[in-house]
Amino acid sequence: MAFRSSHSLGRPLIAPTNLTKTPSRNCKFSIQNCSLDPSHSRKLVLEVKDKLEKEHHSLPVGQNGRDDEDMILWFLKDRKFSVEEAVAKLTKAIKWRQEFKVSELTEELVKSVADTGKSYVHGFLDVHGRPVLVVVASKHFPDVHDPVEDERLCVFLVEKALAKLPAGQTKILGVFDLRGFKTENSDLKFLTFVFDVFYYYYPKRLGEVLFVDAPFIFKPIWQLTKPLLKSYASMVRFCSVDTVRKEYFTEETVPPDFRD
Length: 260
Prior knowledge:
Layout: H1 38-55, H2 69-78, H3 83-100, H4 107-114, E1 119-121, E2 132-136, H5 147-163, E3 172-177, H6 188-201, E4 206-212, H7 219-229, E5 236-239, H8 241-248
Parallel strand pairs: 2-3, 3-4, 4-5
Antiparallel strand pairs: 1-2
Protein name: Transporter, putative
Pfam families: CRAL_TRIO
GO biological process, one term: cellular response to phosphate starvation
């Protein structure tokens, strides 16, 4: 999956805006449950909403649009409640959704590349209640497959995984099955694209990434990729198939590819 213009993944340090001094707690996907005082949270959401309407009136409205208050709150949390930073990142994300035509992605549109089995959303949640997005690296051939179709499949599956989020859960698990990985499967741009998508357009939705049974030839690729990911690299865990089975699933829910 090639990404035409990879972005720098530098993370600016942003000061919180009037955060309460109470101990932090998990922030659910609603204004009322946020660690900020509800009235203050609401005020910031409306401030962002108003700025988007005045400064970016051409952006669409509705779900995932400039007036989607849940989406606004999510980006505010990501930007540590900095209104200006949230507006900037939201504007970029909403424009990207328009240009990429995310709302038009369907099973039929991505069927040809999905049929390769290179990536899919698992039918069960992991033991932490997270939807699971699986990538089978040995089935990815960047010199053969259309990178545009690969990008569409990637975004379609992210959307599909997020649609499976149960109440109270906010993040998904990414599993890279690296068994059988060879040089011809190598794609630095693919890894960069995946993490770019999550950082810029689906912030704080990726909870953990498992690199399963990584062969020796994968190590140099990781060493090249890791500096680009900055803090996101800390989400990656190298582990074995046995670890996936025992720590992330039950006997009934483990993906078929990872069964004994």
